[in-house]
Design brief:
It is a single chain. With 346 residues, this protein is an alpha/beta fold. It folds into two domains: 20-252, Aspartate Aminotransferase, domain 2; 257-345, Aspartate Aminotransferase, domain 1 (Alpha-Beta Complex), CATH 3.90.1150.10. 38% of the residues lie in helices and 16% in strands. It has helices at 20-29, 41-54, 66-76, 91-94, 99-104, 120-123, 155-167, 179-186, 228-234, 243-252, 257-277, 299-306, 331-345; strands spanning 59-63, 82-87, 107-111, 137-144, 171-176, 201-205, 215-219, 283-284, 292-296, 312-315, 320-324. A seven-stranded mixed beta sheet has the order 1-7-6-5-4-2-3. A four-stranded antiparallel beta sheet has the order 8-9-11-10. Helix 7 links the parallel strand 4 (137-144) and strand 5 (171-176). Helix 8 (179-186) packs across helix 11 (257-277). The protein is globular. The chain starts with 19 loop residues before the first helix and ends with a helix.
Length: 346
C-alpha cells in the first residue's frame, strides 16, 4: 500500500494556501467593472486600513511580490553609486538573484551575524570612505523583520538602528515579508516596530501570511515617495486589476486577521521546536521568535525525512535545516511529523 503523503509541508509559508477570508474578499471584488491601476474603492479602502495601522502620513503602493517591493523601494531612495548594508543572510543578498544590484545599481555590503540581526557596532566598519569618490557611499541599512533566521528585533533595537542610520545620513529599510509574525511574537502594534521607531521604508508582506499574492511598499516620508509611481510602472509592478491585490490586504487588515494568522503560525513553530528538542540527535539552533525553526539534523536522515515531508536544508556544511509553519499548520501536522522524525533517527 502506498503511504499517504502529508497535505502540508514545513518548507515555507509560501507553500500554504490562501486564507478563506482572503478568498472571499477576492470573490467580492470580482463583481462588475472598476477603474484599473488602483483608482478603485478597494485600493482606497486598503490604503485607509494601512494608515490606521501605521499612521496617516504614509504613502502606500501595492506590488506583486516581495522581491519587487524590496528592489523598487530601494531604487526609489538610492543612486547607483550608493551601497545598501544588510546581513549576510538577508533575502536581498541571498534569494533575489542579484535583482537589487541590477535594478538599483548599488553594491550590497554584507555583515556576518550569528542570528541574522544587524547592530550599530556591526555596521560601523562599513562606514569608511564617506565622501571619497573612490568608494561606494552607504545610503541604506536594510534589515529583515522577522529575520531569515527566525529571530526578531525588539523596538529598542530598531530605534537604536534608526538613530544610528539617521546620525550618519543613512536610511533604514525594513524587509517585512514576515512583519506580522514579528509583531505577533512581540505582542506589539505594527506601528511600534515601524513608524514609532524611525523606519523610513517598509516592504510589507502578505503572501506568507494568508494572501494569494501581493506586497506593499510603504514610505514614512511622503516626499521620498514622490516618484515611486513611475518606478513601479517601469519595474512592471503596476497591476492593472489592482483591486484583487487591494481586496486581499483589506481583508488581512480587518479585525486583526494579520495578527491571528501570524500568532497561530508562531505558536505552531514553538510547539514544533519543543517536540523536536526532545528527540536525541536533534539540536535547535536559533531562538524560535516567529514561525521558523532551525535545527541540526544528522545528514543521513534528511533525505529519508524529505521523502515524506518537503523542507529545505539551510546549511549543507553544518546539516542545519529550516522548518516553517504557517497560518494553516495544525497540531496534527506537527504530531505526525515528529512521529516520523522519532522513527527515523532512533
Amino acid at each position: 500500500m502506498t503511504k499517504r503523503q502529508p497535505t502540508r509541508s514545513f518548507a515555507s509559508d509560501n507553500n500554504a494556501g490562501v486564507h478563506p477570508r482572503v478568498l472571499r474578499a477576492i470573490a467580492r471584488a470580482n463583481v462588475g467593472h472598476v477603474v484599473a491601476y488602483g483608482d478603485d474603492p478597494y485600493t482606497q479602502s486598503a490604503i485607509r486600513k494601512f494608515r490606521e495601522q501605521l499612521g496617516n502620513d504614509i504613502e502606500v503602493f501595492f506590488v506583486f511580490n516581495g522581491t519587487g517591493a524590496n528592489v523598487l523601494g530601494l531604487q526609489a531612495l538610492t543612486q547607483p553609486y550608493h551601497a545598501v548594508i544588510c546581513a549576510e543572510t538577508a533575502h536581498i543578498n541571498v534569494d533575489e538573484c542579484g535583482a537589487p544590484e541590477r535594478f538599483t545599481g548599488c553594491k550590497l555590503l554584507t555583515v556576518r551575524t550569528p542570528d541574522g540581526k544587524l547592530t550599530p557596532e556591526g555596521i560601523k566598519p562599513l562606514l569608511h570612505g564617506i565622501g571619497v569618490e573612490h568608494h561606494v557611499q552607504p545610503r541604506i541599512i536594510s534589515i529583515s523583520q522577522a529575520t531569515e533566521m527566525g529571530t526578531v528585533y525588539r523596538p529598542a533595537e530598531l530605534k537604536a538602528l534608526s538613530d544610528f542610520a539617521h546620525q550618519h545620513n543613512l536610511l533604514l529599510h525594513l524587509d517585512g515579508a514576515r512583519i506580522a509574525n514579528a509583531a505577533a511574537g512581540l505582542k506589539v502594534r505594527l506601528r511600534e516596530i515601524t513608524a514609532d521607531v524611525g523606519v523610513d521604508l517598509l516592504s510589507f508582506g502578505g503572501a506568507k501570511n494568508g494572501m494569494m499574492y501581493g506586497e506593499a511598499v510603504v514610505f514614512f516620508n511622503r516626499d521620498q515617495a514622490a516618484g515611486f509611481k513611475f518606478i513601479r510602472k517601469q519595474g512592471s509592478h503596476l497591476a492593472s486589476k489592482m483591486r484583487f491585490i487591494s481586496a486581499q490586504f483589506d481583508a488581512l487588515l480587518t479585525n486583526d486577521l494579520w495578527k491571528k494568522n501570524a500568532a497561530h503560525a508562531n505558536r505552531m513553530a514553538r510547539i514544533l521546536a519543543r517536540e523536536l528538542a526532545q528527540i536525541p540527535k536533534i539540536e535547535i539552533t536559533q531562538k524560535v521568535e516567529a514561525n521558523g525553526v532551525f535545527a541540526i539534523v544528522p545528514r543521513r536522515y534528511i533525505s529519508l525525512l524529505q521523502k515524506q515531508y518537503f523542507f529545505y536544508v539551510w546549511n549543507e556544511v553544518t546539516s542545519e535545516v529550516r522548518l516553517m509553519t504557517s497560518f494553516d499548520t495544525t497540531e496534527s501536522d506537527i504530531r505526525e511529523f515528529v512521529v516520523l522524525v522519532r522513527q527515523t533517527v532512533r
